Amino acid sequence: MTALPVIIDCDPGQDDAINLLMAFARPDRFDILGVTAVAGNVPLNLTQRNIRLLCALAGRPDIPVYAGCDRPLIREPITAHQVHGPEGIDGMTVGAPSVPLQPQHAVDFIIATLEAADDDGVTLVPTGPLTNIAAALSKVPAIASKISQIVLMGGAMREAGNFTPSAEFNILVDPHAAEVVFGCGRPIVAFGLDVTHRLLGLPDRLERIRALGNPVADAAYGMLSFFNRFDSAKYGSEGAPLHDPCTIAWLLRPELFQLKPCNISIETTSPLTVGHTAVDFWHVTTKPHNARWAFEVDSEGFFDLLTDCLSRYGGRGQDM
Ligand code: BDR
Ligand code: CA
Question: What residue ranges define each of the domains in the chain, with the CATH number in brackets?
Answer without folding.
Answer: 4-311 (3.90.245.10)
